[in-house]
Amino acid sequence: MQGLKIGHVSSQEKGTGVSVFLFDPGSAGACWVCGSAPATHELAVLDPENSVPHLDGLVLSGGSAYGLYAAKGVMTYLTEQGRGCPTPHGVVPIVPAAALYDLDYKKAIAPTEEEAYQACREASEDNMASGRIGAGTGATIGKLVPDAKHMSGGLGRAEMTLPDGVQVVAYAAVNCVGDVRDKAGRIVAGARLTQDEFADCEKYLLSGEGERDLFQHSNTTLVAVFTNAKFDKSELKRIAKMATAGIARAIAPIFTRFDGDILFCISVGERMASDLTIGTLAAEIVRLAIVDAVKHSETVT
């Protein structure tokens, strides 16, 4: 998508990574927090009531709250490019960030600002990679049922272009406590009892079984939706709300007190479209991105 550059750094050894998204000047963004345990940085600037109209980048990271420090690497890179909100003492890049918890996957080490800086240098408009990369490197799913095995999550991507050239692209770092389901409601990845049998997190809860201490595991789904249609922050917040329907279509249970789910919505273009159309489209693209994130999911031992 023109006006959007994407870069990822992944450490398979540490079991974590960072994804950066860089925008052309004049891009606007908003977000909707739908989980109860978010790890975030600079979200206040996305509120429609606040005065900063534009943003320069977005960071999705592993490492829990420690991963938020990676945003400094993006700010350093953008400062070198002269990008940011002008002030009497130089530019201040506006870079919101959100992180998921993957510290228990391999090593309890978060992505660094140097790695985020590297991701910026390697970012490109034609980067369409997905899988166990970037923020999805150490993601796991299906952590609700005792004694069931987890499966790997990842960073998924999906896009759609309307006949008039309006585009919507979604990225989803899927690290949920629940299972991922397809459009027909079938579990495609999640808590496993055996190689051929899913435990079914939703069924487990509805059977009357008690909850476990889920804060000991890694949860949270981070989603970023981009469009080349022009919207202000108020409209983008409304689209973000609508797009969270896609998360609920693909993950069950979702938006729990153990998840820090959040959805960003960014406008990087000048085309015309209604927020109703883009919100409806975004919900389906988000669902597809989540399923894409686990298309090569494997049991985590």
From TrEMBL:
Pfam families: Peptidase_S58. InterPro entries: ArgJ-like_dom_sf, Peptidase_S58_DmpA. Coiled coil: none annotated. It comes from the Bacteria. GO terms for molecular function: aminopeptidase activity. Keywords: Aminopeptidase, Hydrolase, Protease. Belongs to the peptidase S58 family. This is L-aminopeptidase/D-esterase-like protein. It comes from Aquicella lusitana.
